[in-house]
Give the backbone structure.
Amino acid sequence: MDIREDMELTLAVDRLAFGGKGVARVEGLVVFVDGGLPGATVKARVTRMKKGFAEAVALETLTPSPQAATPECPHFGVCGGCVWQDLEYEAQLFWKREQVVETLARLGGLADVAVAQTVASPRVYAYRNKMEFAFAGRLHLGLHERHRPGRVLDIGECRLMEPWAGEALGFIRETCAQTGLAAYDARTSKGVWRHLVLRHSEDTGARLVHCITGPARGAGDAAHALGEAVLARFPEVTGFVHSVRRAPTAVALGERQVMALGQDYLEERFGTARLSVSADAFAQTNTQAAALLYGVAAKAAGSDPAGAVADLYCGCGGIALSLAPQFETVYGFEADKRAVADATRSAELSGIGNAVFKTMDAAKGLEELSGIAPAVAVLDPPRNGVAPEMIAALLSAAPRKVVYVSCNPATLARDLKALGELYAVTQVTPVDLFPHTAHIEAVAELVLR
C-alpha cells in the first residue's frame, strides 16, 4: 500500500507509545495515532510521513477500547492539557510502567532492571496545586489546543485543579480584555499579557496568582489594577505577583518580579517537609503524590545517622528536607538563588537544623564536598537530564548510593547508562504525579559496584 499524507486508514491500535500516542501497524509500517487507545479500531488521517514510520490522528472510533473511560472535562479532545481522560486509570498506570521498561531497555541497555508497579496518585482529578495558562490575541486565556498547539483555547474549567481556578480564569480573562491591551506576540515582541500561573496550598488553603507580562509600556499599571481586582473578588487569594519576561521563549517564568500585593509565597506540606513556595519556585504540582514520591526516594536513599547526603538539584528543598531525619547533614545545591532562599526558609518552617543550602552549580557543589564524601547523592534534574559535567563529578566522588528522580524516562535511561561504569541499578519505581497525561516520574536506585 502506498501510504501518503492526508490518506484515511482503518487502524487497529495495539499499545501506547512513550509520549501518549497509540501504536498501529499497516503492512509493517508503524503508525503513531494521536487519540488511539489500545484495543481500539479507529479511522485515522495520516498527518506526517517519516522514514520508517507515520503519524496520524484518529477521526472516528469504530471499535472502542475495552479500557476506554468517559472523560469528565468538557474541553477534553480539543484542549492539549490531557491526552488520556478517555483511558481507565488502571490502564494509565500499566502503560506508564511499560514505557519505562521499554525506554530503559532501548536507550539504556537496561533490559534486566527491576521496574516496580507504578505508584498511583491518591487523586486523579483536582490533584494539581499549580496550573500555567497562556494569553493569546485580543484576548484568549487558557491552554494550548491539542491538535493546533499554536492556538490558545479559552478554558471555562480545568478538572485537574480545584474549581476556583476556572472561576479565577474567567474573571481574569474578562478583566484583562477590558484593558484593550493585547497578549504578547513573540514574533514582534509587542503586547502585554503572557502567562497566568495559579497556585494553591492544600495545607493552608491560601492561593497565589502570578501574572507574567512582557516589558511593554503600561504593563505595570495594568497588572497592578488586575491584582487589586483579583484580591477584591477572591478573598481566598492571599497574594498577587506581577513579573516581567523579555525572552521570547514561551515559558511561564518571570525574569524579574515587579511587585507583589499581599503575600508573594505559599506554605505547603509535602509529607514531613513544610515548604515555602514562591511565585516562580519549582515544586511538585501534585501535593499528595509528591509525598509518596519523596517516600520512595527516602527509602531508596536509606539511612546513615553519621553520614551526609547531597541533593544536587534541590529546588525549594522538598527531597532534601524529607531526607534530613535519616542523615547527619543534608547539603542542597541549586543554581537559582530564589529557590535556595525558598529552601532555607523551608528548613526553618520544618524545624530542621541539619540542612545546608547553597546557590551553586550541582557539579561544583559535589566537588566542594570532596572532603566530606557524602554517602548518598540525590539527583532531581530538569527534563533534559544530567549534564556530562555532573556525570563526571558523580563518577569521581563515587558515593555509595545514587538516587535519581526523573521526569523523563529517555534522559533517565541515557544517564543511567553513563553511570553504569561504576553503578548498578537495583530498582526503578514509576510514580504517577500526572494522571490523564503521558508524563512519567520515576525514582531509580543505584549502588556502587
Observations:
- The longest strand covers residues 53-63.
- The chain has a mean pLDDT of 95.
- The chain is about 25% helix and 30% strand.
- The two ends are 52 Å apart (CA to CA).
